[in-house]
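Hi there, hope your week has been kind to you so far. Would you mind checking whether the C-alpha coordinates look sensible for this chain? I owe you a coffee for this, so here goes:
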Amino acid sequence: MKKFAVLMVSMCCLFASESRVKSLGDVKDFLVDPSLTYLYPSLLVRFPDMLWVEFTDSSIQNLPYVSFAGVNIKFHEKAGVFSFIYNYPSYTYPYVTSYPLKEQRESRGFEIIWAKSITQKIDLGTAISLNYINEEITDTTLSENPILTVRNIEFMPGISYTISKDKKIDFSLHFSTNSFYQEYYSPAISDTIDGKGNSFYGLNIRYTMGIGEYSNFIFGLHYYSYPQKYTESSGTSLIEFNQKKSELNFNLGYYTEPLENLKVITGINLSYTTIDTTHTEGVTQGKGSLDAFYINGILGAEIEFGKHFEFRSGVRKSLLKSIKDKDYDIGGTGKDALNQEEFNIELGFSFIKDDLRFDGVMGKQVLFRGPFFISGKESGLFSTLSISYNFSLF
Protein backbone atom coordinates (compact mmCIF):
# COMPACT_ATOMS: atom_id res chain seq x y z
CA MET A 1 0.00 0.00 0.00
CA LYS A 2 2.92 2.35 0.72
CA LYS A 3 4.20 1.82 -2.82
CA PHE A 4 0.73 2.51 -4.20
CA ALA A 5 0.47 5.75 -2.21
CA VAL A 6 3.81 6.96 -3.61
CA LEU A 7 2.57 6.26 -7.16
CA MET A 8 -0.65 8.18 -6.66
CA VAL A 9 1.25 11.19 -5.30
CA SER A 10 3.59 11.06 -8.31
CA MET A 11 0.68 11.17 -10.75
CA CYS A 12 0.31 14.94 -10.50
CA CYS A 13 3.61 15.51 -12.32
CA LEU A 14 3.38 12.78 -14.95
CA PHE A 15 2.03 13.01 -18.48
CA ALA A 16 1.00 10.52 -21.18
CA SER A 17 1.15 9.55 -24.85
CA GLU A 18 -1.31 11.76 -26.75
CA SER A 19 1.73 13.77 -27.85
CA ARG A 20 3.22 10.85 -29.75
CA VAL A 21 0.00 10.30 -31.70
CA LYS A 22 -0.36 13.99 -32.49
CA SER A 23 3.21 14.40 -33.76
CA LEU A 24 2.89 11.41 -36.11
CA GLY A 25 -0.09 12.63 -38.14
CA ASP A 26 -2.79 12.63 -35.43
CA VAL A 27 -4.51 9.37 -36.43
CA LYS A 28 -4.89 7.01 -33.47
CA ASP A 29 -5.56 3.96 -35.62
CA PHE A 30 -2.03 4.03 -37.02
CA LEU A 31 -0.28 3.44 -33.68
CA VAL A 32 -0.35 0.86 -30.89
CA ASP A 33 -0.56 3.31 -28.02
CA PRO A 34 -2.27 3.58 -24.58
CA SER A 35 -4.49 6.39 -25.90
CA LEU A 36 -6.21 3.81 -28.14
CA THR A 37 -8.05 2.53 -25.07
CA TYR A 38 -10.31 5.61 -25.35
CA LEU A 39 -11.66 4.17 -28.59
CA TYR A 40 -11.16 0.43 -27.96
CA PRO A 41 -11.46 -0.45 -24.24
CA SER A 42 -10.49 -4.09 -24.85
CA LEU A 43 -6.95 -2.93 -25.73
CA LEU A 44 -6.40 -2.01 -22.08
CA VAL A 45 -5.05 -5.55 -21.47
CA ARG A 46 -1.94 -4.47 -23.40
CA PHE A 47 -1.19 -1.57 -21.05
CA PRO A 48 -1.48 -2.73 -17.43
CA ASP A 49 0.24 -0.99 -14.51
CA MET A 50 0.79 2.46 -15.96
CA LEU A 51 0.53 6.05 -14.75
CA TRP A 52 -0.07 8.86 -17.24
CA VAL A 53 -1.27 12.47 -17.50
CA GLU A 54 -1.89 14.77 -20.48
CA PHE A 55 -1.37 18.52 -20.70
CA THR A 56 -2.10 20.91 -23.59
CA ASP A 57 -0.84 24.48 -23.51
CA SER A 58 -3.91 26.65 -24.14
CA SER A 59 -1.83 29.76 -24.85
CA ILE A 60 -0.38 28.00 -27.92
CA GLN A 61 -3.49 26.40 -29.39
CA ASN A 62 -6.11 28.95 -28.34
CA LEU A 63 -8.14 26.15 -26.74
CA PRO A 64 -9.66 25.71 -23.28
CA TYR A 65 -7.26 24.41 -20.68
CA VAL A 66 -6.97 20.67 -21.22
CA SER A 67 -5.36 18.15 -18.86
CA PHE A 68 -6.29 14.71 -17.64
CA ALA A 69 -4.63 11.90 -15.69
CA GLY A 70 -5.08 8.17 -15.36
CA VAL A 71 -3.75 5.07 -13.69
CA ASN A 72 -3.99 1.53 -15.12
CA ILE A 73 -3.81 -1.32 -12.59
CA LYS A 74 -3.89 -5.09 -13.00
CA PHE A 75 -5.06 -6.38 -9.62
CA HIS A 76 -5.24 -10.10 -10.49
CA GLU A 77 -5.33 -12.27 -13.59
CA LYS A 78 -8.96 -13.18 -12.97
CA ALA A 79 -10.01 -9.59 -12.26
CA GLY A 80 -8.52 -8.11 -15.43
CA VAL A 81 -7.12 -4.59 -15.86
CA PHE A 82 -8.78 -1.40 -14.61
CA SER A 83 -8.11 2.17 -15.71
CA PHE A 84 -9.24 5.16 -13.66
CA ILE A 85 -9.17 8.44 -15.59
CA TYR A 86 -9.74 11.86 -14.02
CA ASN A 87 -10.92 14.81 -16.13
CA TYR A 88 -11.73 12.42 -18.97
CA PRO A 89 -12.18 14.12 -22.41
CA SER A 90 -15.12 12.86 -24.43
CA TYR A 91 -14.21 11.52 -27.89
CA THR A 92 -17.81 10.70 -28.79
CA TYR A 93 -18.67 14.34 -29.31
CA PRO A 94 -15.42 15.59 -30.89
CA TYR A 95 -16.56 18.89 -32.39
CA VAL A 96 -18.58 20.24 -29.48
CA THR A 97 -16.16 21.82 -27.01
CA SER A 98 -18.68 24.38 -25.80
CA TYR A 99 -22.40 24.68 -25.31
CA PRO A 100 -24.60 26.91 -27.44
CA LEU A 101 -24.67 30.69 -27.12
CA LYS A 102 -23.83 32.78 -24.04
CA GLU A 103 -21.20 31.01 -21.91
CA GLN A 104 -18.81 28.48 -23.44
CA ARG A 105 -17.87 25.56 -21.20
CA GLU A 106 -16.35 22.14 -21.81
CA SER A 107 -17.80 19.09 -20.06
CA ARG A 108 -15.25 16.74 -18.51
CA GLY A 109 -15.44 14.13 -15.82
CA PHE A 110 -14.36 10.72 -14.55
CA GLU A 111 -14.08 7.43 -16.44
CA ILE A 112 -13.47 3.79 -15.54
CA ILE A 113 -12.27 1.26 -18.15
CA TRP A 114 -12.13 -2.50 -17.56
CA ALA A 115 -10.65 -5.18 -19.82
CA LYS A 116 -9.86 -8.88 -19.54
CA SER A 117 -8.49 -11.67 -21.73
CA ILE A 118 -11.26 -14.26 -21.97
CA THR A 119 -9.28 -16.67 -24.16
CA GLN A 120 -5.98 -16.50 -26.01
CA LYS A 121 -7.85 -14.93 -28.93
CA ILE A 122 -10.57 -12.82 -27.28
CA ASP A 123 -10.23 -9.71 -25.10
CA LEU A 124 -13.30 -7.97 -23.71
CA GLY A 125 -13.49 -4.43 -22.41
CA THR A 126 -15.97 -1.77 -21.39
CA ALA A 127 -15.84 1.87 -20.35
CA ILE A 128 -18.22 4.16 -18.52
CA SER A 129 -17.76 7.87 -17.88
CA LEU A 130 -19.69 10.52 -16.00
CA ASN A 131 -19.32 14.24 -16.64
CA TYR A 132 -21.11 16.69 -14.35
CA ILE A 133 -20.94 20.46 -13.99
CA ASN A 134 -23.08 22.65 -11.74
CA GLU A 135 -21.55 26.06 -11.24
CA GLU A 136 -22.16 29.77 -11.11
CA ILE A 137 -20.39 31.84 -13.73
CA THR A 138 -19.17 35.19 -12.52
CA ASP A 139 -20.21 38.04 -14.80
CA THR A 140 -20.03 41.58 -13.38
CA THR A 141 -22.22 42.98 -16.20
CA LEU A 142 -25.27 40.99 -15.01
CA SER A 143 -27.39 41.50 -11.93
CA GLU A 144 -27.01 37.83 -10.92
CA ASN A 145 -24.46 35.10 -11.68
CA PRO A 146 -25.51 32.69 -14.47
CA ILE A 147 -25.90 29.02 -13.51
CA LEU A 148 -24.69 26.26 -15.83
CA THR A 149 -25.55 22.57 -15.38
CA VAL A 150 -24.14 19.83 -17.62
CA ARG A 151 -24.69 16.06 -17.30
CA ASN A 152 -23.14 13.50 -19.62
CA ILE A 153 -23.02 9.70 -19.29
CA GLU A 154 -21.09 7.54 -21.77
CA PHE A 155 -20.96 3.76 -22.11
CA MET A 156 -18.66 1.89 -24.47
CA PRO A 157 -18.39 -1.93 -24.74
CA GLY A 158 -15.67 -3.42 -26.93
CA ILE A 159 -14.01 -6.63 -28.06
CA SER A 160 -10.68 -7.56 -29.66
CA TYR A 161 -10.30 -10.77 -31.62
CA THR A 162 -7.02 -12.29 -32.80
CA ILE A 163 -7.81 -13.91 -36.14
CA SER A 164 -4.30 -15.29 -36.58
CA LYS A 165 -0.75 -14.47 -35.59
CA ASP A 166 -0.62 -11.50 -37.98
CA LYS A 167 -4.27 -10.43 -38.09
CA LYS A 168 -6.38 -8.75 -35.42
CA ILE A 169 -9.63 -6.81 -35.27
CA ASP A 170 -10.80 -4.35 -32.57
CA PHE A 171 -14.42 -3.28 -32.25
CA SER A 172 -16.38 -0.96 -29.95
CA LEU A 173 -19.78 0.71 -29.68
CA HIS A 174 -20.26 4.09 -28.07
CA PHE A 175 -23.45 5.37 -26.41
CA SER A 176 -23.93 8.69 -24.67
CA THR A 177 -26.74 10.74 -23.13
CA ASN A 178 -26.24 14.44 -22.59
CA SER A 179 -28.21 17.33 -21.13
CA PHE A 180 -27.32 20.93 -20.33
CA TYR A 181 -29.20 23.78 -18.71
CA GLN A 182 -28.07 27.37 -18.46
CA GLU A 183 -29.79 30.20 -16.64
CA TYR A 184 -28.64 33.76 -17.16
CA TYR A 185 -30.09 37.16 -16.39
CA SER A 186 -30.37 40.65 -17.70
CA PRO A 187 -31.55 43.43 -15.38
CA ALA A 188 -35.21 42.92 -16.34
CA ILE A 189 -35.52 39.48 -17.97
CA SER A 190 -34.74 35.93 -16.89
CA ASP A 191 -33.34 33.82 -19.74
CA THR A 192 -32.64 30.10 -20.00
CA ILE A 193 -31.10 27.60 -22.42
CA ASP A 194 -32.44 24.08 -21.98
CA GLY A 195 -31.00 21.10 -23.82
CA LYS A 196 -32.25 17.82 -22.38
CA GLY A 197 -32.45 14.29 -23.72
CA ASN A 198 -29.66 14.42 -26.30
CA SER A 199 -28.39 10.95 -27.20
CA PHE A 200 -25.31 10.07 -29.23
CA TYR A 201 -23.90 6.83 -30.53
CA GLY A 202 -20.82 5.68 -32.40
CA LEU A 203 -19.07 2.69 -33.95
CA ASN A 204 -15.30 2.05 -34.07
CA ILE A 205 -13.55 -0.74 -36.02
CA ARG A 206 -9.81 -1.27 -36.40
CA TYR A 207 -8.16 -4.05 -38.40
CA THR A 208 -4.42 -4.71 -38.42
CA MET A 209 -2.56 -7.16 -40.61
CA GLY A 210 1.14 -7.94 -40.34
CA ILE A 211 3.16 -7.85 -43.55
CA GLY A 212 6.47 -9.48 -42.85
CA GLU A 213 8.27 -9.01 -39.55
CA TYR A 214 8.43 -5.20 -39.39
CA SER A 215 5.39 -3.88 -41.27
CA ASN A 216 1.64 -3.58 -40.68
CA PHE A 217 -1.37 -2.66 -42.76
CA ILE A 218 -4.02 -0.73 -40.76
CA PHE A 219 -7.69 -0.11 -41.53
CA GLY A 220 -9.92 2.06 -39.31
CA LEU A 221 -13.62 2.89 -39.61
CA HIS A 222 -15.52 5.28 -37.33
CA TYR A 223 -19.14 6.38 -37.50
CA TYR A 224 -20.70 8.93 -35.14
CA SER A 225 -24.21 10.31 -34.87
CA TYR A 226 -24.75 13.16 -32.44
CA PRO A 227 -27.97 15.13 -32.76
CA GLN A 228 -28.36 18.22 -30.63
CA LYS A 229 -31.49 20.06 -29.58
CA TYR A 230 -32.21 22.86 -27.15
CA THR A 231 -34.69 25.63 -26.46
CA GLU A 232 -33.79 29.19 -25.49
CA SER A 233 -36.27 31.29 -23.57
CA SER A 234 -35.85 35.04 -23.24
CA GLY A 235 -38.84 36.75 -21.67
CA THR A 236 -41.79 35.86 -23.91
CA SER A 237 -39.54 34.84 -26.81
CA LEU A 238 -38.89 31.13 -27.45
CA ILE A 239 -36.25 29.75 -29.81
CA GLU A 240 -36.01 26.04 -30.70
CA PHE A 241 -32.85 24.62 -32.23
CA ASN A 242 -32.60 21.08 -33.65
CA GLN A 243 -29.53 19.67 -35.37
CA LYS A 244 -28.83 16.21 -36.78
CA LYS A 245 -25.16 15.51 -37.41
CA SER A 246 -23.40 12.37 -38.55
CA GLU A 247 -19.76 11.70 -39.40
CA LEU A 248 -17.99 8.85 -41.15
CA ASN A 249 -14.20 8.49 -40.95
CA PHE A 250 -12.09 6.00 -42.86
CA ASN A 251 -8.36 5.53 -42.18
CA LEU A 252 -6.03 3.45 -44.32
CA GLY A 253 -2.40 3.25 -43.24
CA TYR A 254 0.90 1.43 -43.56
CA TYR A 255 3.40 1.17 -40.70
CA THR A 256 6.92 -0.06 -41.31
CA GLU A 257 10.41 -0.11 -39.79
CA PRO A 258 12.78 0.11 -42.79
CA LEU A 259 15.81 0.56 -40.52
CA GLU A 260 16.56 -0.63 -37.01
CA ASN A 261 16.01 2.80 -35.42
CA LEU A 262 13.47 4.24 -37.86
CA LYS A 263 9.66 3.92 -37.90
CA VAL A 264 7.56 5.31 -40.79
CA ILE A 265 3.78 5.77 -41.12
CA THR A 266 1.98 6.63 -44.36
CA GLY A 267 -1.76 6.80 -44.75
CA ILE A 268 -4.96 8.32 -46.06
CA ASN A 269 -7.79 9.79 -43.97
CA LEU A 270 -11.27 10.22 -45.50
CA SER A 271 -13.96 12.11 -43.65
CA TYR A 272 -17.60 12.72 -44.61
CA THR A 273 -19.89 14.88 -42.48
CA THR A 274 -23.57 15.77 -42.90
CA ILE A 275 -25.47 18.34 -40.85
CA ASP A 276 -29.16 19.29 -41.00
CA THR A 277 -30.45 22.12 -38.81
CA THR A 278 -33.85 23.56 -38.02
CA HIS A 279 -34.13 26.90 -36.22
CA THR A 280 -37.59 28.03 -35.09
CA GLU A 281 -38.32 31.43 -33.55
CA GLY A 282 -42.00 32.08 -32.97
CA VAL A 283 -43.78 31.32 -36.25
CA THR A 284 -40.58 31.75 -38.30
CA GLN A 285 -38.70 28.59 -39.20
CA GLY A 286 -35.39 28.31 -40.99
CA LYS A 287 -33.67 25.21 -42.31
CA GLY A 288 -30.09 24.60 -43.33
CA SER A 289 -27.83 21.75 -44.37
CA LEU A 290 -24.18 21.04 -44.98
CA ASP A 291 -22.23 18.21 -46.60
CA ALA A 292 -18.45 18.14 -46.17
CA PHE A 293 -15.99 15.65 -47.64
CA TYR A 294 -12.25 15.62 -46.95
CA ILE A 295 -9.29 13.48 -48.05
CA ASN A 296 -6.07 13.99 -46.09
CA GLY A 297 -2.64 12.48 -46.67
CA ILE A 298 -0.63 11.42 -43.61
CA LEU A 299 3.13 10.95 -43.34
CA GLY A 300 5.05 10.43 -40.11
CA ALA A 301 8.51 9.26 -39.10
CA GLU A 302 10.23 8.56 -35.80
CA ILE A 303 13.95 7.97 -35.33
CA GLU A 304 15.84 6.86 -32.24
CA PHE A 305 19.06 8.51 -31.05
CA GLY A 306 20.84 6.26 -28.62
CA LYS A 307 18.94 4.61 -25.79
CA HIS A 308 17.10 7.60 -24.40
CA PHE A 309 16.04 10.01 -27.16
CA GLU A 310 13.61 9.99 -30.08
CA PHE A 311 12.79 12.62 -32.68
CA ARG A 312 9.62 12.51 -34.77
CA SER A 313 7.74 14.55 -37.32
CA GLY A 314 4.25 14.21 -38.78
CA VAL A 315 2.71 15.87 -41.83
CA ARG A 316 -1.00 16.14 -42.60
CA LYS A 317 -1.86 17.49 -46.07
CA SER A 318 -5.32 18.19 -47.46
CA LEU A 319 -5.62 16.40 -50.82
CA LEU A 320 -9.28 17.09 -51.53
CA LYS A 321 -12.00 19.19 -49.90
CA SER A 322 -15.63 19.56 -50.92
CA ILE A 323 -18.21 21.55 -48.92
CA LYS A 324 -21.82 22.03 -50.00
CA ASP A 325 -23.57 24.56 -47.80
CA LYS A 326 -27.21 25.64 -47.86
CA ASP A 327 -28.05 28.18 -45.11
CA TYR A 328 -26.10 26.08 -42.59
CA ASP A 329 -25.34 29.08 -40.35
CA ILE A 330 -28.99 29.88 -39.58
CA GLY A 331 -28.56 29.04 -35.90
CA GLY A 332 -25.46 31.17 -35.46
CA THR A 333 -23.34 28.06 -34.99
CA GLY A 334 -20.65 28.96 -37.55
CA LYS A 335 -18.43 26.62 -39.54
CA ASP A 336 -15.25 26.69 -37.45
CA ALA A 337 -15.74 23.07 -36.38
CA LEU A 338 -15.51 21.92 -40.00
CA ASN A 339 -12.55 24.01 -41.07
CA GLN A 340 -9.44 21.89 -41.62
CA GLU A 341 -5.90 23.07 -42.20
CA GLU A 342 -4.66 22.67 -45.75
CA PHE A 343 -1.24 21.71 -44.46
CA ASN A 344 0.01 20.94 -40.96
CA ILE A 345 3.38 19.73 -39.69
CA GLU A 346 4.29 18.80 -36.12
CA LEU A 347 7.67 18.14 -34.51
CA GLY A 348 8.00 15.92 -31.46
CA PHE A 349 10.65 14.71 -29.04
CA SER A 350 10.90 11.91 -26.47
CA PHE A 351 13.11 11.07 -23.55
CA ILE A 352 12.99 7.49 -22.24
CA LYS A 353 14.66 6.31 -19.06
CA ASP A 354 13.81 2.80 -17.87
CA ASP A 355 10.02 2.81 -17.26
CA LEU A 356 9.63 6.59 -17.49
CA ARG A 357 8.78 8.21 -20.84
CA PHE A 358 8.46 11.92 -21.72
CA ASP A 359 6.80 12.96 -25.01
CA GLY A 360 6.32 16.49 -26.28
CA VAL A 361 5.05 18.31 -29.37
CA MET A 362 6.96 21.50 -30.08
CA GLY A 363 4.91 24.70 -30.10
CA LYS A 364 4.87 26.27 -33.55
CA GLN A 365 5.29 29.81 -32.18
CA VAL A 366 8.62 28.86 -30.63
CA LEU A 367 10.16 28.51 -34.10
CA PHE A 368 9.22 32.14 -34.90
CA ARG A 369 9.35 33.91 -31.51
CA GLY A 370 11.68 31.77 -29.45
CA PRO A 371 10.85 30.88 -25.83
CA PHE A 372 9.48 33.47 -23.39
CA PHE A 373 12.84 34.37 -21.83
CA ILE A 374 14.12 35.39 -25.31
CA SER A 375 11.08 37.00 -26.95
CA GLY A 376 9.13 38.17 -23.90
CA LYS A 377 5.96 36.79 -25.54
CA GLU A 378 3.73 33.94 -24.39
CA SER A 379 4.91 30.84 -26.22
CA GLY A 380 5.53 27.58 -24.47
CA LEU A 381 8.24 25.21 -25.64
CA PHE A 382 5.65 22.42 -26.07
CA SER A 383 2.06 22.65 -27.30
CA THR A 384 1.39 19.20 -25.84
CA LEU A 385 3.39 17.43 -23.14
CA SER A 386 3.05 13.83 -21.98
CA ILE A 387 4.73 11.40 -19.61
CA SER A 388 3.95 7.77 -18.87
CA TYR A 389 5.40 5.55 -16.16
CA ASN A 390 5.19 1.76 -15.99
CA PHE A 391 5.14 0.13 -12.56
CA SER A 392 4.29 -3.15 -10.87
CA LEU A 393 2.17 -3.44 -7.74
CA PHE A 394 1.35 -7.14 -7.60
